[in-house]
Specification:
Blueprint: E1 12-15, E2 19-31, E3 34-43, E4 48-53, E5 63-64, H1 68-79, H2 89-102, H3 105-115, H4 126-147, H5 151-170
Helix pairs in contact: 1-3, 2-3, 2-4, 3-4, 4-5
Length: 171
């Protein structure tokens, strides 16, 4: 994405702390006696509208949704063998937190891939499940927007990819 991205009304965007939202309007507000251009973003899932100064939007991590090429990389990442590191949970936890906080779809896919477990076996700790669900809940809506499908369809497709990768890894 270029630095000139303007975040126009109707555009889908990603804010790392909230996931996918849609720019509802651009407005000017007087703050401290100065006019400030604001980007209003509506997050349907959180029932939240957030306003960010446009000159600070990219510094805050606001970005356009991923391109189809990036989503192909996401699918490729999800299809890979999980990276099962033998390191203390505190280090893995910090790594997962950083990846989720980045909002980067490929980093989210890495967390999802590494923490996915067969639902039938459910050999996952509560903390692992929390990280998985948070990363998945950020990845699926962006995948849905890029693929122009519903979030439910995106969830089904992503889970199918993960299940296929798990079956290949255990075969």
């Amino acid at each position: 994405m270029s630095k000139e991205y303007t975040f126009n009304p109707g555009d889908f965007v990603v804010y790392p702390a909230h996931g996918v939202g849609q720019v509802s309007e651009r407005q000017t507000a007087s703050v401290g006696g100065q006019d400030v251009d604001l980007i209003a973003i509506h997050f349907t899932k959180d029932k939240l509208t957030m306003r960010i100064p446009s000159n600070d939007a990219m510094n805050k991590g606001l970005r356009a949704v991923a391109t189809p090429v990036v989503m192909e990389s996401v699918v490729s990442t999800l299809s890979e063998k999980p990276n099962t590191k033998r390191q203390p949970w505190s280090k893995r936890s910090a790594e997962y937190t950083a990846k989720i906080g980045s909002g980067d779809p490929i980093a989210l896919a890495e967390v999802v891939r590494d923490l996915y477990r067969d639902p039938a076996l459910s050999n996952q700790t509560y903390s692992e499940r929390q990280f998985f669900e948070k990363a998945f809940s950020r990845l699926a809506p962006e995948y849905a927007v890029v693929q122009k499908i519903t979030e439910q369809e995106a969830t089904i497709q992503l889970e199918s990819i993960l299940q296929g990768a798990l079956e290949k890894a255990t075969a």
